[in-house]
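Sequence only, no structure available. Ideas?
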Amino acid sequence: MKPRPLILFLYMCRRALIAASLLSAMGAHAAAPAASSRVTSPDERIAAEVWLDEDGSPYYIISHDGKQVLQASRLGLIRDDADFSRDLRMLDVSDIEGVADEYELLTSKRRHNAYRANRRTYSLQTSAGQRLDIVFQVSNDGVAFRYRFPETSRRVHRLREEVSSFNFLPDTQTWLQPMAAAKTGFASTNPSYEEIYQQEGTVGTPSPTGAGWVYPALFKSDETWLLISETALGRDYAGTRLRNEWRSTEYRVGFPDALEHFQGGPVAPESTLPWSTPWRLIVVGDLKTIVESTLGTDLADKPAADAKVPGPGPGKASWSWPLLGDAHTNYETQKRFIDYAAEMGWRYTLIDALWDTQIGDAKMKELVDYARDKGVGILAWYNSAGDWNTAPQTPRDLLLTRKSRQREFERMKKLGIVGLKVDFWPGDGQSAIAYYHDVLEESARAGLLMNFHGSTLPRGWHRTYPHLMTMEAVRGLEFVTFDQKNAEDEPSHAAMQPFTRNVFEPMDFTPVVLDRINNIERRTSSAFELALSVLFTSGIQHYAEIPEGMARAPQYVRDFLKAVPSVWDDVKFIDGFPGKYVVLARRAGDTWYVAGINAEKAPRSISLDLGSLSVRRGTLITDGYGGNLSFRQEAVSADKPIEITLAPRGGFVLTAQ
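Reply:
I predicted one. Tokens follow.
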């Protein structure tokens, strides 16, 4: 039976009203109302606007060059005793205040850094009188905000939820790494930020693991790029991640899984008052802005007045484990790798897991003394575990308490060990984050250099603790040695890192295999691998190549790896696209090191204008024509642009003065 015309008309009207209502609700916060308050960057190209809606809920938007790039996004926290996400009233909006900071950092992409921003504080109050401040700072490269509970209370307050969100425009593209589910992977050691970035997705696609997405998270809205992360993560907060729902343009800040704790301690944040959260940061601009930004360290907690980098500081290291495995953590092999480091002029040799049982303290002391005579420092591996993983590698369970840490650090210093690599950490819960801070504070007092593997993202800690040389938090080269699938992924994966993981933080990818990997067909050229020594930054750069492979490389390649700096004065983005190719220039003193990789299966032409770097001439090393370990070298001049054809999955390095 067909519906009668009047009934059909009324039915269609009802559907139209419902649709209009939904559209109205969806667009209710699409733009800031007239009562919003604005903070702009010093150059006025970036603006953040903040307001309370009719329900007393705080929102913000971000615009770039007058165009909205982040639509109405939530602000607020829900505490165990109060809801700071709705029914709020605005007590005060501060005047704009200029912020200026300058600092030196040896373990990142730029040694001397200057930060300039405009700050505004929004003071809010619940109906019961509890206070919350939201601080916004806008610099020429992005927007940052954090929360502060200004009242004083000795009672421990707990957060049930952080309401903060990042609400993107429809059709925004995404480059996101899934967060691994807690207690999965090798010996239940996840999450450790070691997944592959999913490239050129669309907002609204949920994480395949169900655990959210890690920082840094990269987005492209029309022609504007945005990179989201957090920094200044103290012991009184949890490491967070992004969560989103199917087809939603809104990404919410999420707390860790309940399993991510240290010895049964808290996972969600808790603290007495006053209490400040980490900074949420959004870099906004083009790819040059993203790659050259230092926002993650600009906003990091400053080091203590007496903090220092123990000698000899940043450097390069030989390391047997990636290509030779556990069995070669023995006296004879490690002595050979000390000789290798000395021959290459590198500062360190890392002696990995099982040194305590396969070498022992007495022979370790012999190695340390032997290395010292050759100008090489020894780094030693530790398992962070307690009960959060089942990884059997030793030494383990020796860093769990303050007393045992102090005893172990003193023992290492007596052996002459200059630094430690600590592996297999317990996740992002607040108690796990506090464990990181405990180890960092006590190792600083002991004068040990530190490197964390199987770890979370550093979030600015290398500024707060200058002796923290590097952290993994990446699917590094060791994964290529595990199976062919990782070798297939490496070209594109490596071309993602300068736009994401390695933007702010030192990254222990352990790059550079020039020769062969047993039972694996490499998918990167030898020149591609060589370029990673410049493209990737790490306070201590652990090279995976072994002495035999290095000996087969041309002398000029070995000379390059002897000379490539460990501390960089500046960085410039030349060209690239996430996951496809990248060309960067890094300066040390008066010398520029330019490096590029092509992740794709077809050749790519690159034009370099050395004149823009104020240099006269240089030396280019790129792929030869003979397969593995094939290079060619040529002199180049800055008189005219240099045309380079990058081989499929190939690379180059260029040194210029």
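The domain at 486-512+523-536+564-657 is CATH 2.60.40.1180 (Immunoglobulin-like).
Hope that gets you unstuck.
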